[in-house]
Amino acid sequence: MDEKIVLQRISAIEDNTEKLRNALFAMKITDLQKYPTNYEELSTDAALRAERIACQLRNLIYATGITKKTVYMKKAAKTHGIQISGNAGILTIRLPGLLPKRKAHVNTVFLNEPLHYALNEYLQQNPLPIYTNCVVCFVQTYDGRLPLRRIRDYDNLEFKQILDTISPFIFKDDSGLYCDSYYTTILEDADYTTVHIMDKSVFPEWLKSEKKLKSDLSEIS
Predict the structure, then answer these.
(1) pLDDT tens per residue across span 156-199
(2) Which of 35, 73, 202, 207 has the smallest CB count inside 10 Å?
(3) What is the DSSP-derived secondary structure letter of residue 128?
(4) Which one of 3.30.1330, 1.10.1390, 3.30.360, 2.60.290 gives the CATH number of domain 68-221?
């Protein structure tokens, strides 16, 4: 890549980094108890800006050709803490806590690209049958030490983007004819999301075992 273009892209990243720094400073001086809405807006802006910066840096790495995309994605998946496992016909995927749905102009590859890579790598070594009659269970875990008002409605989170990334690997079709969705929220000591995919015949027993372990707020569709 032309060095001038590289420098222009670096300058754009620096500009976004400065805006991120300003957002973080504003969060630091905002009273969370008195102004929760302001704090929510600032923190969401900071998180999305950080995602944008990460994507800009990724594109810069790919453009220079120094590091292969697959090599970087393996490291990105590990950094995100993406974990994939299978047990008794249930595929489980652990992800970072999901953010609110993004505006159209915000890049959505931040988490989905590493997830796509991790799924592809896992299923090459651990092939699974295509699910034709299944339930996808989204478990949104929140840090219970933080204010409960930050818990969001399921419709406001980016589950659809995650499902769109997963579905080509293991679903015949992700329509309601073949796939039901179940959502639950639990409190622990960290923020993260888990996705459990299983045949409908397995779901009742899975749900029973989960409810023995955790109290939750649930919704099925």
Answers:
(1) 677 888 888 998 888 876 666 678 999 988 888 888 999 999 99
(2) 35
(3) -
(4) 3.30.1330
